[in-house]
Amino acid sequence: MAAPFLPMSKDEMNQLGWDSCDFILVTGDAYVDHPSFGAAIIGRILENQGYRVGILSQPDWRDTRNFKALGRPRLGWLVTAGNLDSMVNHYTAAKKRRSEDAYSPGGRRGLRPDRASLVYAHRCREAYKEPPVILGGIEASLRRFAHYDYWEDKVRRSVLLDAKADVIIFGMGESAIIEIAKELVQRREGKSEGQSFDYPLGANTQGVCYVTQDISAIPEQERILLPSYEKVAEDKVLFAKAFKVQEEEQNPFAGKILIQPHGDLYLVQNRPSKPVTTEELDAVYDLPFARRPHPAYDHLGGVPALEEVEFSLTAQRGCFGGCSFCALTFHQGRIIQGRSHESLLREAKKLVAAPNFKGYIHDVGGPTANFRQPACKKQLKAGACKERQCLHPKPCPNLDVDHQDLLELLRKMRRLEGVKKIFIRSGLRYDYLMADKPAQRREFLKELCQHHVSGQLKVAPEHASPQVLRCMGKPGIDVYESFKREYERANKEAGKEQYLVPYLVSSHPGSGIREAIELAETIRDWGYNPEQVQDFIPTPGSLSTCIYYTGIDPRTMKPVYVPRSAQEKTRQRALLQFRRPENYPLVYQALRAAGRMDLVGHGPKTLLRPPRPGAGNNDREMGRDDKKGKKSVPKKQGKGRRPF
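Above: the chain's sequence. Below: its structure in token form.
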């Protein structure tokens, strides 16, 4: 029988009649028993398999005694930094400490360490040496190879070696954790009978990385030997080449086993786990989640991160969008794995039954809301293409574009008693939508605008410069503008006043000041006044991070300009918000340095008005009065998950 919550204390274990745990799951997040939190999914999956799982949520890492609170785990430690990389969670693009942590009680910061996977693993070992330490979650997953770390500005070893753990389960992990758990039981029983195990834990499991001193048992035709950590740390060209191989071989059907020497040891990555079936994914979301934070947090103000997902539905996982700055494909993969309508309707009814449900389902989606099936039929047998993207630079001729399944799902949900409105807030790939047949596209946009937009629809053109968009793996800005026209037409026909909120990124590799000015001119022509823009953050595992570190695009091995200085990054960001008075000095300096003083004046195509004669920087005026300029979105833009 499932526990109301996985136990977080000895008292809760006693209430369940447990004298020990099979696994103790250490997480950098507050424990929220909801399927949007990875620790809850892994814990409930193991519970469903008959294992006893305890939770150490945000233990104080400064004292090893806190890691003994639940006793010794019988089979192993499970360690995750949480739903976010701990460094991304803690620091901005300017490397300044964030003021809040949405995954902690009351949003309080400072409850987890930097590089949480590594620190927690060390404390687990200090508490009890014998149980194996298994790393998982996005931090460990994206740091499984030698990787560039933006916050230290250097190449670090695989986190598996630095943490001195036994294995990393990379990717989503459901299949691999079940296999590892079975293997641990076999090893425990076998050792009691005198059997020896001469191969590393997880060596025969897909979706696992391990360390070994001997790779002779791995057939040469099934493996690729990457340049060593020591070599990629010294040579940026080798780093770029190694990254390209790592990216190409993330194929669960045909990928090679990747091996990267670290000193006299070898890091081995097996093939990624195979995509889960619809039935398997449905089973995960049918597990008995309490769907709320552990009661221990009630007096602390709850956990803010739950607010965004409490009344949202995850309809699918994976993404074939191929954005260079997103490491999602290195974690979830490029093959879409979708849930059935029946499963989603069952979960929707659970939302309706919640006492605080007000009739609004905030999102039905995933990494990309309108990806509901694999990009093509070939992917389920052979995996994604090694050297071709599904959407960039143009949609692949083999791409299966279909919005009918999503439309049918939304229609069924609209008919549920108690549901007033269903929104799509996780973002649409507008280039995928524009690749659909005109009639189907119009039908989808009509119903989207009529029923599923909360006044604003978030999309992600990211930039306007062709050079930067190519580097990003995004479509040309003309595709966005075509979509914008159709979206506005659909809203007009529906009698709705609804806006697009385009996400924009500054200082991405490939963007110099001239490209940033090009984006500012596009924003001017749109009549748009961005409330928020995002500075590019080089996170482990993404193609853009590789380009940022090396100055080389590994797809072509050609050099790419990378903005690095704080001054240039600040100017690029200011250009995206050139209408703000406080940005006038920075924008003026950027335009002067770029020889674009034609954009300073009184004409309709200027960005700034000329400075007043004799006025200082603090007395300079804007290029045009915001009250007179056209606004494309209301001032308050609302919340929502960032689209990819």
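Residues 617-644 have pLDDT under 50 and may be disordered.
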